[in-house]
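Supplementary Methods S3. Input chains for the assembly prediction are listed below.
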Amino acid sequence: MKILYQIVAFGLLVGGYAPVAQAQDTNKQRTKPMVDRATLVAFHGPESQLHRASVALADVVVAGKVIDEKGSGLPGVSVIMKGSTQGTTTDGEGSYRLSVPNERATLVFSFVGYTRQEVVVGTQTTLTVTLLPDDQTLNEVVVVGYGSQRRQDITSAISVISMRDIGEQPANNPNQALQGRAAGVVVKQKSGTPGGNIFEVRVRGIGSLGAGSDPLYVIDGFAVGTSVGQNLNPNDVESISILKDAASTAIYGARGSNGVVLITTKSGKEGKVGINLSLDYGIQSTPRSRRVTMLNGVEFAQFKKDIFMDGIRYFQKREPTIDEVPIGYRFPEQTKFSTDWFGEIMDNNAPYTDMNLTISSGKGPIKSLLSVGYYKEAGTIIKTNYDRFSARSNLSGQVNKFLSIGMNINGTYTKQNLANTDGRSNLVGGALLMDPREPVYNADGTLRPYIGGVDGAFGFPNPVFVLNNVLRRRTIFDLLTNLYADVAILKNLSFRSSINAKITYNNFKDYIPSTIGLSVASGTAGAPPRIATSQENTEQLINYSLDELLTYTPNIGANHNINALLGFTSQQETVRSVAGSANTFPDDLVPFLGAGSIRSSNSNEFGFSLLAYFGRVNYAYKDRYLASASFRREGSSRFGAQNKYGDFPAASVGWRISEESFFPKTSWVNDLKLRASWGVTGNNNIGNYPSLAFVGANNYILGNTFVPGKVVSSFANSELKWEKSNQLDIGLDLALFNNKLTFTLEYYNKLTNDMLLPISIPAVSGFTTSLANIGKVENKGIELGSEFRTSIGQINFRTNANITFNRNKILAIKGANDMLYYGGFYGGYNVQKVGRPVGMIYGYKKLGIFNTQAEIDASPRQDGVIPGGMKFADTNGDGVITYDTQDMVEIGNPNPAFTWGWTVAADYKKFDVNVLFLGAHDFDIYRNIEASTMNMDGVFNVLDKAKDRWRSPENPGSNPLAKNSQGGTNFFKWSRESSERYVYDGSYVWLKTITLGYTLPKLKSVLSDARIFVTANNLFLFSKYPGNNPDAGVRGGTELNNDDESYPVPRTLAVGAKINF
Amino acid sequence: MKKITALSILFLCLTQVSCKDDFLVTTDSTRIGTDLFYQNQAQFEQAVNGVYGQLQTITNAAYLFQEFNTDNTTLDFNPLDRGGAAGWEALEFSTVNPGNGEISNLWNLHYSTLYNINYALEKLGPSTVDATAKKEIEGQLKFLRGYHYFNLVRYFGDVVLVTSTLKNPDEAFNLIRSPQAAIYTQIETDLKEAATLLPAKHVAAKVGRATQGTALALLGKVYLTKKQYPEAVTTLKQILTLGYSLPAKYADVFDPAKKNGPESIFEVQYQGGNDLGEQSNFMYVFAPRLSQGAVTGFANTAPAGRNIPTNDLIAAFEPGDLRRDVSLQASYTLNGTVVPIPFINKYRHPHTITGRTDNNWPVLRYADVLLMLAEAINEASGPTAEAFGYVNQVRTRAGLKEVSGLAKDAFRTAVLKERRVELAFENHRWFDLQRTNTPAELAAFLNAHGAKEKAKPTVARGGIAFNALDYVYSDFEYYLPIPAPQILINSKLTQNSGY
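Predicted structure tokens for the full assembly:
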């Protein structure tokens, strides 16, 4: 209903303008020169006054050519006489011809992506102008919250990523483009699931313990939420601005705390008509070097034999006879099969194809861009894949002098064939654990459904069979659309009204046939047939927002520059879902719910609403002293009745020292700017109804008949309020040597207060947790970014590096000594403790392995330990290592000391190259999977390094004192608890992307430009970490770096072509 | 003029949403807010049902603390996967520490239930529900409060007494443990009131709820536990006139087709065979791990193998005791092979859907009352003929000859033994042992049992030896530890000594 209401209002608005627009048209015909003048003033500011008088005078014809830095003609360059609307654009060869009134006229040459040039005509009639690429130059316009600003005027911390600089790289998600490109922005690819939403983006650390740390994504002005989703084709992205400090994000109020990612999509360029076709084809694989090595069939049989015999030797204190050894592994050398189960589920040549066609036109009143894309990716795990079809239409145009409108529509359809892959109890981890003595196929070539369960090895369904027979599919229809109208109310007052909507239909379906057995089942108890199960969920999401912006740029003299913004926004999201499940299917022939004998269904509806008023003023004095202030007052439905609204102020100042008269006018310093900012932002990711209490169903039977029952589900907390962050930022921008070398240095300190946290409360209250505004987290750090570009002969060289040092610290939870434990006794803990960084890894400190009973007797009591068990430290000194968390301490820090990214790009004649390195240093990973892949019970296959295990005091392995050596040959206790044993240093340097390109010679009238390239992604990983991916982690939130073996991140090799017609 | 039009449209836009005050007021339309509930009789009936629903959850795990940890049952030891079974092993082998998750659940579930009881009672007082209905609802809630506190005080000793709901989570940090006496005072008050408020019998649609007899039987048990024998006798005798009787066949008591029969005083209700989610699955928890379908009747099930009858209990059945085969089986047959792992048979009945059985759980039944009465009379006035009569009613049905001529001590022993076999696997053993022994006696008794199990385990251990501390009981284990997380959260909460 509310949507309708707003659409009607919007219609009223546009409708209201139609007569105005018409009136303007009539006006225009009658008194053309006057209107021209008015427009000219409105659009070009004070300096144009000088030229006003000369508009209608006699002509001088100027002709010439605009070329790029390589000497090729640039088509589509706008050539305009300064101070007028008179102008033209260059043709396909870069040539132009223009009449100007006199010799004093100045021509302005501008083209997107190139530096604007102004040339006084003088006596010349032929003017050849070279435009240089406009990267990071001071005049570059940067997209900021609800507007844009010249780079030189910016007083806050904003990183800009131009897709042009990245070169071609395979990307299935826009987040991939953020990786390594911006200081203070850490992007982890947590798994290799095709098309999955697998990137974790953190801007300036983890700011919240309970409410999530994902940034807000804003696509073409529409705040879509904390996930960019799968709906956006990276090929449609023009540029990405990342707002990092509070001065830039406070305008997004309650959602600005974790940074804001502003994505701008491509649009038709002034005067240019283009057809662009891009084709990529690549192959993905998980290289041998990034797989773990498990025992083969013979080795596993030997391992089983050894542990069987070692067990008798230890427990029964005698030498076993060979006849006691079960026949299955009595003679390891006779083992018939040796299966690499992990290898069996991998596709070593998984192809992907990315095809995009873009047609853009910047001629005429309506600029348009139409794009269609098709992306198809096969996963490196067989039978998993991802398809995306996307279509976009971006239109914008001037209806008349006062009104311009625009509309973006983006529709996407994606289909994903999924599998349960991550973790030991799923396919990737599970495949490692399977008995290698078992073959994949029967003698007749058919797949064996169930494997193992013999000789004490646990049984698993055959993962190849599972991948071929389990259906698990997600399809998403996504529509993202903006519609706006810009009205020039007065010469320096404009109004923009926009409506944005996101509509998503998401369908998930799975069917697990009766032929799939149970994982990790002892004996053959897990063998099929099982009860077939199926579920199907459909979710419909509607999110819309309405923005009204008033922009005022008064003209108060040459030295003052003011830009003011006043706005109002409202947003509402509603999600409705229907879910059904069924089991006990008579056969596996009809994988639909209706065929199941037992069915259940559920439906749901939830949502939120917010509305906000905001304003911002930017002021510059003589381009030298800069100041900016913003304020947002925002209300959210998610908070308690007493605290619906929050206030989010911010302010920043800048001083361009290089503009001062006392600053030596050296030729090599182009810009030196100091800036400082402070602001308050919020975080509202706490679910939709946390402040309310509900009754939930808890039914019963009376009179042998079902009766409904109700219980209270939570404490109501009407005092819940915003989680707020105060952030201070001090920055320095320096440009040297004609802008060839630039530096940006930032210091920030972000303090999150009133943190929304589920706290443990005494159970005697009736509940074990309650959400409350408690706790403080501090993130502070230094970011350094630098870029250098130069030309040496015919080589153009560009390099860009950034490094980030972030330190976070929990300042308070509830009490000063509070700790929050996440994780489990056997799976590693992440602990939030006052005075310590977020997510510290917790467990027993390992001292070594007990060799003898005498050593055990001489040590603090460790109940149940036997020789071979790990020796842990009695950290609380009470003489006992208790089997709980009392003796556990910090055993690892998951937060890197620093992270960096380094891009090197160069071109020489027709060739170009672009290389990206990434690094993260000095952080720890809890390699949880090794609790299973080094399980000495003989129930799972084990890592190759198990051959070097502790077996007896005489045979303790090559280095029993090594931190990661595994004990526990004979007894489970004290071998798998959360301990230092599983903690590895994750430091890495990753050669992430290399692209080599070649620009083809021009083919007259057919090809205006074409480029072919080869590229490699995730090429080389330099790390001592034994897992596939040091970015992996199966848990979310603040439970950092718990690697339980995820879908491997593949290496991709691709070729592609980009052709402009 | 045009500008004015434009501006006025602008302000229209700016104000359109903000004038709707309810824009920011949303509620979850899929759930009922507490402010909308607790208004009429139907809703209070549902609140009572909700508490009973919570009782199902508590009952599902209660065997762990009442049978599993005693000489009655043991664990189907899994030598291959001890990591996953560590929590159960700790309970079975008496190596429990305050970090045990099962004990945490036990504590949390009881207090969650008590919250709902207190919440409903608070709302009931000022409500407009009619007096008769109000009386019964109040009786139910008070009986349930007494029931849960009686369990808590026996599990943990001193516990936190909460009889009203908290308005703010912070208040919970000020609550500390009350002495047992104060808890018992509250239990007696609640049960006495419940006995006057509750009806002697329910209409068919409400069968399964507590009755006057239920409140009296529990109150009798409270007196017996507190060794107030004359009060126990008086209270329990009132039940004799309420129309309960022992059906001729012992098996009928557990037959889902004969739920809430003449002997039933209080059963936790379950229903299988449908999708309503109210089923029980005791058989699946209790059946031997590798029995597949041999016990459950559904091929390829993977039972949990907990609560396996011990050799000691099997030997406690006198020859000819008709109850033995109803209660347990000494082995199962899988694929023609006899596997000598015993299992509980009481909750094993044919059912239509895997994992969803129809069995109720007996909490209080007439045989229990008769044996309690016999015990109380013996303690109050020696082994009178009347006392023998009550025991022999139970023995006769079991096909055993009557006992007679026992002295007071021997009679006490006989009644306890009778309780052990008559009420086997019905969650009486731990409290019976606790009630009739001092902490030192209990530790000695269980250590003796442990020594037997260690010497000859009921279930083979795959060559894995016992730990030195397995089955070693100390006096302090008379009570469970207060869950460690609760003390971490609120340091004002004290731990039971020894832990």
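Chain B touches chain A through 102 residues (CB under 8 Å). The CA atoms of residues 287 and 295 of chain B lie 6 Å apart.
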